[in-house]
């Protein structure tokens, strides 16, 4: 980057810079805005300026459709660490010119906007700051050959910004809700990745339907159908909020009569909701707040929801039970009557990077999950060499899932109430 010359930290840059929160969302917005919808999955890290600035950053990665799938699949996706490593390398490219300089005065520009992968979209222009980023993935409910809107599943609060107003509607299929459109909202951009298992036979109303109403509950404008026309494809587009619209609803469904196999893969929508700002980056009244603030509030809510509880009162003590040694890769354990687990990492620490803490924060060790036969209850990132996890709803789970990074080996001890 410096034409063969040396490089060093800029004057005043400390030896360690915490890259988290606003810095992460700012960096993603500069090069890959579609990643903003997944900012909550991206851990902060320490930028070691002395070592990072003495050499070039890693090559700027290229994202593809598999990265979209990895992120939408969430933290238990076995390939998510591949994409998270790409994101970390991309951020190292963004922040090198900010924290580092060439000693021969060569100017290194900040990387520009990168093209989005299939199944995602970057939105640029005016306004340049989305007010809401939506993300929905799942199995749409089945509908009949002549569906009514009440049969569609409700993905409104996952894909559209809403205020506190609600409006009741009904048709021959049942009742459903319209949600208040925040004042000033002007348009929505969307992208869709169909995995090829839902849209086996096309319906004009299959996939997704967005409907609008005025204050009297009268429909405004035609239905919008953000969907694909053939199975296994991607699509994207933009629609405006009709004049006079005060309420909206995003419904999702697939045709009941289609031959859709085992429904193994989910359909993915990503959305950006926009307001008409007076200048690039302006946030008007329809915006709930900066993305990092929204993410922080969501994380606080999740922490409160995940406070450990036990049936019949609080847990006073635990005892150690069966020890499962030498666990690697992806494994599942069937358990009964346990309240949690003790995980000891025997190989794979210290990690690079290792963040400060007491005990230190270990990077990309893997993930733990607890489930029943019906599905997952909770998951937790493995971040310490020795870690105890006692989940809430602990009396329900029957399976422990382990996903470990390359070269990581752990011993897992079952914990029982004492």
Write a compact overview of the structure shown.
Helix content is 15%, strand content 33%. The chain has 418 residues and is an alpha+beta fold. The chain has 3 domains: 7-102, no CATH class; 132-301; 318-417, Jelly Rolls (Sandwich).
Task: Give a quick set of tags describing it.
418 residues; alpha+beta; Jelly Rolls; 3 domains; six-stranded mixed beta sheet; four-stranded antiparallel beta sheet; 6 helices; 24 strands; 15% helix; flat
Molecular structure report:
There is one protein chain. This protein folds into three domains: 7-102, no CATH class; 132-301; 318-417, Jelly Rolls, CATH 2.60.120. It has 418 residues and is α+β, with helices and mostly antiparallel strands. The protein has helices at 22-31, 49-52, 65-73, 80-99, 156-159, 291-305; strands at 7-9, 16-19, 45-48, 100-102, 132-138, 142-143, 153-154, 166-171, 174-180, 185-193, 207-213, 234-240, 247-255, 267-275, 318-327, 330-334, 340-347, 354-355, 361-362, 366-372, 375-382, 386-389, 399-404, 409-417. The chain has six helices and 24 strands. Strands 6, 7, 8, 9, 11 and 13 form a six-stranded mixed beta sheet that branches. Strands 5-14-10-12 form a four-stranded antiparallel beta sheet. The radius of gyration is 24 Å and the shape is flat. 15% of the residues lie in helices and 33% in strands. Residues 124-128, 197-206, 258-265, 277-285, 288-293 and 306-313 have low confidence and may be disordered.
């Amino acid at each position: 980057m410096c034409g063969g010359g040396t490089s060093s930290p800029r004057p005043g840059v400390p030896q360690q810079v915490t890259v988290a929160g606003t810095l992460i969302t700012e960096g993603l917005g500069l090069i890959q805005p579609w990643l903003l919808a997944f900012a909550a999955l991206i851990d902060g890290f320490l930028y070691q300026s002395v070592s990072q600035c003495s050499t070039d950053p890693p090559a700027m990665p290229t994202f593809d459709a598999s990265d979209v799938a990895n992120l939408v699949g969430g933290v238990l996706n076995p390939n998510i660490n591949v994409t998270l490593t790409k994101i970390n390398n991309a951020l190292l490219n963004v922040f090198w010119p900010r924290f580092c300089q060439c000693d021969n005065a060569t100017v290194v520009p900040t990387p520009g906007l990168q093209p989005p992968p299939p199944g995602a979209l970057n939105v640029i222009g005016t306004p340049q700051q989305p007010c809401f980023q939506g993300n929905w993935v799942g199995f749409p409910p089945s509908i009949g050959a002549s569906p009514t809107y009440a049969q569609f599943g409700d993905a409104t609060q996952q894909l559209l910004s809403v205020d506190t107003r609600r409006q009741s509607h009904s048709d021959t299929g049942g009742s459903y809700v319209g949600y208040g459109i925040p004042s000033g909202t002007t348009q929505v951009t969307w992208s869709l990745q169909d995995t090829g298992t839902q849209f086996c036979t096309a319906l004009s109303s299959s996939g997704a339907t967005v409907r609008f109403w005025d204050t009297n509950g009268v429909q405004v404008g035609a239905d919008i159908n953000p969907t694909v026309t053939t199975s296994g494809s991607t699509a994207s587009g933009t629609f405006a909020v009709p004049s006079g619209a005060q309420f909206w609803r995003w419904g999702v469904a697939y045709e009941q009569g289609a031959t859709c196999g085992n429904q193994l893969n989910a359909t993915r929508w990503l959305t950006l909701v926009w307001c008409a700002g007076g200048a690039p980056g302006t946030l008007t009244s329809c915006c709930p707040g900066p993305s990092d603030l929204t993410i922080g509030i969501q994380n606080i809510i999740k922490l409160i929801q995940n406070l450990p509880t036990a049936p019949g009162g609080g847990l006073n003590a635990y005892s150690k039970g069966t020890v499962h040694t030498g666990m690697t890769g992806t494994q599942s354990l069937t358990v009964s009557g346990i309240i949690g687990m003790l995980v000891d990492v025997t190989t794979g620490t210290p990690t690079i990077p290792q963040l400060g803490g007491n005990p230190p924060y270990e990077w990309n060790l893997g993930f733990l999950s607890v489930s029943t036969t019906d599905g997952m209850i909770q998951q937790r990132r493995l971040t310490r060499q020795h870690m105890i996890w006692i989940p809430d709803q602990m009396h329900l789970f029957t399976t422990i899932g382990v996903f470990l990074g390359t070269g990581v080996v752990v011993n897992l001890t079952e914990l029982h109430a004492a």
